[in-house]
Amino acid sequence: MKWPAIFVLLSICSQAAAQDIEVSVFSATSKSAILRWTRVYGASSYKVIAAPQNSPGNPVGYAVFGPHTVMGTINSLSPNIMYTFTVAALDNAQEILNIGTIDSSSAPEVMDPLLTVKSKDSKTFISSFSLKTGATSYIIRLQNPNRFIRENIVSSSPAEIESLDPYIEYSLSIMSVNSGGHSQPSSPVTAKTVLPPPQLSASSPSNNSITVSWAPVANAVQYSLSLYKFAWNTTIIKHNTSNTNWIVSGLDMGSVYVIKGFAWDPEGRQGEDSLYIDQMTRPAVPSIANVSMVMNNGLAGISVSWERDEGVFGSLQYHVMSDQNLTCNSTSSSCTLSPVGCGEVHTVRVSTSDEAGPSDQSGPVVFITFPCPPQSLAVVESTEGSCTLTWDTVTHVNSYTAFIKRGDGAEESCNTTSRSCTYNCTCGHTYLMSVKAFNQAGSSPEGQVLNYTTLPCCPEGVSISAVSTDTFEITWTVSRGAELYQTRAADSSEVILCNDTAPVCALSDLSCDSSYSVVVTPCNDISGCNRACKAHTQITAPCMPMNLMLTQRNSSCFSVSWTPNNRLANYTVTASGDDGTRTCNTDGNSCDITDLPCGSNFEVSVIATSPAGLGLPSYSELLETGPCCPVDLTVDQVTQAMSNVSWSPAKGAHTFITSLTSTRGHARCHTMDSHCLMGCITCGTNYTVTMEAISHSGRRSNCSYEGFSSSACCPSGVRLYGMAHSSLRVHWRGAGSSHSYVTELVSSRNNYTCTASPWESSCDVPNIQCGDVYTVVVAPLSPEGSKVLFCAQRIYSVSCAGSNLGSVIYRGKRSVD
């Protein structure tokens, strides 16, 4: 089938068939296009046809593809022409199943090579080319030696290509672009970027030179540099070098210079220019004009001035320094070093600095500050009425002036180059003295003021009186020039001092029975004390007796003794208490106090007297006589083994120990009461009764009383037996007692009694009423015939057997209530 017939058939079918195939242009060149389409079920092949849009009946090419192809190329296109592309899906009979179309242009015509390619800098090309009709933009393709391809889209000529690598040769071609795609690349041209700029840095090592340095630039064979003075329009110096540094000398001090440079490659091409950098030379060395002392807000300082260089560029900072670690900074022509002290030697230098750095230091200037005030002022009274004022030597001093002012207002001064001055002084006056030192910087500041007072006169009318056993009161008349009085009392072993401003003093804590030498010494704060005053003698009162000891000679007499500690004294011993006062006197160290009653407390002390007066009484000792014994004591037996002892009150007694003693044992109790219940008493025993009366302090008195005999013992083994003829027999064990016994049988209806003679151990009770319960008691009788009341009771029941007694049954025992 011919091409026109096929295209007509496809055109007719395209009007009837469903537009199910989706067609798109993947890419296009000036002579071909690559199409993509969707797959159609049942298709055995796909036919692609291209026809100019302005001549749809004249297709320019077609291509057939298999059933599994969804992308294909159609050739034989002309540049920059709008085409209609048709894709038909055919079955096995070559019948059309579906078709799809798309309108798209072919790419523009291949361009001519780039006209020019030049380096704008080390990373940028500027290229020019001929424009193409129908092109909407252009693609410049670059390839480096590593075959890396990069494409830049530009819109017109000339065009800049940026972000390149320095000193690299590139291959460049160009393509024109329209809506259909881009043309084939043009023939390539080659071009190389230039060297990058050197990275300059500069410094000024001196005030007439600049050092420029930079890192090596790869592939550079030489460097060219230019130096300009700021605000000048001409180049000062140009320099070519293969090194990486340049030292420029012979420059103006304190001036600003501008520097730039570039590198040369082996092909002799100039590299990219560096950025301009500026560098200032260091300033000139300042010259010190004047150094002087100044005062500012009470602080001393050294003012330094210099000649300012007004012809330099920019601001200058001046730095003043002293070898005493003082500095100051200024932008003017003067500066003050502060604070400074007296007598200091300063070596002063000045330097200046600008942005380039500091200048050299100026020549040194030595300056001495005002002198320090003289110290260690002292006065020596060389002769009566003549005093010499001295002081320590002060360095860097030309002369001294001493100022003396007396307390009554008189003044005098003394000029000297030595370190002492003599003036008239009299007793009892106060002087204020000061000294100033002078040198070329001025006078010293106010220094030490010495307050000196001559020795005061001795006081008169000294009177000493004893106001207590260890205290003297001393009075005197006021003495001229005295600010303080020192009263001194001394004996062979101690010195007592009293300092006061009043003309009276009390010296306390003096040693007893001692002879003291008393001196009143007048003093003042500055000159001290007058040690030439007359002494007075006074004796203190006798000492207090010590180590008082009490020794009991008998119940009513105590001996009192003490340690002798006075040279000559009489002693009085006093014992005072509620029962009166007892005394005794002696010139020795012991004395007896008699007629002391029992149960009494006395406070005993000793006091000494001598011609100097009455001493202090000794510390008191408590004298306690033994407590009195109770007058009456009674022993009452409560049970067979327990007795109650009671007694009358006893003066001075606090507790009592009562004892009952026998050969068969003893009993004792200790109590604060006036009675005591004592156990462990043996029946039928004679006891000795004694007592210890004890005071609060533990003093004891032994007391004896009439003996006590305990009651006869109660019998044991009491049994009750039934006998004939309605009688009962009571039997017991009496342990061979010489006492008679009484037996009692008591019931609620009948009472029976029988008595047994000594040494008998049974008793028969006739005519007993049976059928009753009896309480049976067997008790011994005292010689007076009284019954012991605390023997145990036993309970028996007696039954009846007809008209006779039946069985006798023991029911238990109970004590007497």
List keywords for this structure.
9 domains; five-stranded antiparallel sheet; single chain; mainly beta; 53% strand; disordered N terminus; Immunoglobulin-like; 2% helix; 817 residues; 69 strands; 1 helix
Protein architecture, described:
- The chain is built from 1 helix and 69 strands.
- The protein is mainly β.
- The chain has 9 domains: 23-106, Immunoglobulins (Immunoglobulin-like); 116-192, Immunoglobulins (Immunoglobulin-like); 200-280, Immunoglobulin-like; 288-368, Immunoglobulin-like; 378-443, Immunoglobulins (Immunoglobulin-like, Sandwich); 460-539, Sandwich (Immunoglobulin-like); 546-624, Sandwich (Immunoglobulin-like), CATH 2.60.40; 633-710, Immunoglobulins (Immunoglobulin-like, Sandwich), CATH 2.60.40.10; and more.
- The strands form 18 sheets. Strands 10, 11, 13, 14 and 15 form a 5-stranded antiparallel β-sheet that branches. Strands 25, 26, 28, 29 and 30 form a 5-stranded antiparallel β-sheet that branches. Strands 33, 34, 36, 37 and 38 form a 5-stranded antiparallel β-sheet that branches.
- A hairpin with a 5-residue loop joins β10 and β11.
- The protein is flat, with a radius of gyration of 73 Å.
- The termini are far apart.
- Residues 1-19 have low confidence and may be disordered.
- Residues 1-18 form the signal peptide.
Fold topology:
Layout (H helix, E strand, L loop, with lengths): L2 H14 L6 E6 L4 E5 L7 E8 L8 E5 L5 E4 L7 E9 L5 E10 L10 E6 L2 E5 L8 E7 L5 E6 L4 E3 L7 E10 L2 E2 L6 E4 L7 E7 L2 E6 L7 E8 L5 E7 L3 E4 L7 E9 L12 E4 L7 E9 L2 E8 L10 E6 L4 E4 L3 E4 L7 E10 L2 E2 L6 E4 L9 E6 L2 E5 L8 E8 L4 E6 L3 E5 L5 E10 L2 E2 L6 E4 L9 E6 L2 E5 L8 E7 L4 E6 L3 E4 L7 E10 L3 E2 L5 E5 L6 E9 L2 E7 L6 E8 L2 E7 L3 E4 L7 E10 L2 E2 L6 E4 L8 E7 L2 E6 L7 E8 L2 E7 L3 E4 L7 E9 L5 E10 L6 E8 L3 E7 L7 E6 L4 E6 L5 E4 L6 E9 L12 E9 L2 E11 L3
